Amino acid sequence: MKGKKLIYFIGVLVVGLMIYIVADTMFQPGVGDLETDFEEIGFYRNENNTGPVIRIYTVFSPDTLWQEMRQYGDFMPHTKYGKTTVYFFSDKAGTPSDPIPEEPNFDRAFRQFCIGKYEKTAMGEVRFTQFPFQ
């Protein structure tokens, strides 16, 4: 009888732990929790899966809340030894939809609308620049 109670107790603990893990995973903060309604317009990812992964995002930002832009960048995926770059633009029509791998990652005509640049380097160092092309 004691053996059955122990098995039931362990079973209840395992189920409780699984419920806790799933609940904790489901309620992680993310881009949707930010006050600003950012809209991802363009995305580039290189084909390299064995070396550094390069991700470039172009995002429309209706407001210049610098801290929220930095948080948005922090929420973007990053790969060890890779590089993630997020450009923020103030004009939806002035946001490039097809970033390219070569710097500055989009046509010069869009520079005037770029209000912020977030970079996470290969070693995880974060840089955020306001008005990077002025």
UniProtKB/TrEMBL annotation:
Bilayer-spanning residue ranges: 6-23
Domain of life: Bacteria
Keywords, sorted A to Z: Membrane, Transmembrane, Transmembrane helix
Annotated protein name in UniProt: Uncharacterized protein
Source species: Arthrospiribacter ruber
